[in-house]
Specification:
Blueprint (H helix, E strand, L loop, with lengths): L4 H14 L13 H6 L10 H5 L7 H8 L5 H6 L1 H6 L3 H14 L5 E6 L2 E6 L17 H13 L10 E5 L8 H6 L2 E9 L6 E6 L7 H4 L9 E5 H4 L15 E3 L5 E3 L8 E5 L1
Parallel strand pairs: 5-6
Antiparallel strand pairs: 1-2, 3-9, 4-5, 4-9, 7-8
Helix pairs in contact: 1-7, 7-8
């Protein structure tokens, strides 16, 4: 499968972020919130192409086949569209991040592709019901999994320690994590499963680019900076994460305006 330069840039970016693993040593007296928050500091190394150029989400019918069925081996293998899509290594890379964001740690599945088997472990559990028998990925599921996957894009594919935070119990950051990762990078949100996927980010006031996710050429990056989080999202949470962020769309006159509908699955990344 051929990839455009833009798609290749986003694939390379997403593989790097999902591969980086970070762990903060916990104070014995730290509250239970910190123990739970360590799950948010995960391996991140997803490149842009894996997100934008694979058959798993690049085709509307294939995307619907994925989200309207349970995130389980039998559902993926039993559907001709998803089974065929998983022959593409880029599709399997993206599915690794989708499964990691959606399913809880300790859960996951293994899919046979031709003569090989590939495992997709869970990690954060942002859409746990998707992995249950008869499950599906509804609008809220799509929002949270999309924000989580986009937050894991890394331009160079290098291991980068990050703290992933959001308005979910699974993404709460305790004081140890907040102290170790004080620098807000960006908030990611959108819908990677839509027929016309939306890959959005907003920035702190002093920032102007997404160096980790997009590299030196933001014009070719699939993730689009919509503006400042202060103007696009609700008031920040106590851990510094921004909820309910909005993208920008063009109206009938061609002018960019802020979307009315927020993205509940807004995921904020903090760096050391």
């Amino acid at each position: 499968m051929e990839h455009s330069p833009k798609l290749a840039a986003l694939l390379l970016a997403i593989a790097a972020l999902f591969a980086s693993a970070c762990a903060v040593a916990l104070d014995p007296d730290e509250d239970a919130g910190d123990a739970a928050s360590q799950a948010a500091q995960t391996a991140n190394a997803l490149t842009s192409n894996a997100l934008t150029s694979n058959a798993l989400t690049s085709n509307a019918l294939t995307s619907k086949a994925l989200t309207s069925n349970a995130l389980r081996a039998e559902a993926l293998s039993g559907n001709p569209r998803t089974a065929d899509a998983l022959r593409d290594p880029a599709a399997r890379t993206l599915l690794k991040y989708v499964a990691g964001c959606a399913l809880p740690a300790g859960e996951g599945f293994t899919v046979a592709v031709d003569d090989d088997e590939f495992s997709f472990p869970g990690e954060l559990g942002l859409a746990a019901s998707w992995g249950e028998e008869g499950g599906a990925c509804d609008e809220a599921c799509r929002s949270w999994v999309s924000g989580c996957v986009l937050a894991r894009v890394n331009y160079l594919g290098h291991r980068v320690n990050i703290s992933v935070r959001g308005d979910r119990e699974e993404l709460q950051a305790g004081k140890v994590e907040r102290a170790a990762y004080p620098t807000r990078e960006a908030t990611y949100y959108g819908d990677i499963f839509a027929p016309l996927p939306r890959y959005n980010a907003c920035l702190p006031p002093e920032a102007s680019s997404l160096a980790r996710a997009c590299g030196p050429s933001p014009e070719t990056c699939a993730i689009k900076v919509a503006g400042s989080c202060d103007s696009l999202c609700d008031e920040p949470n106590s851990d510094g994460s921004f909820p309910n962020c909005r993208g920008k769309v063009r109206n009938s006159s061609g002018k960019l305006i802020v979307e009315k509908t927020p993205n509940p699955g807004s995921v904020t990344v903090f760096l050391r």
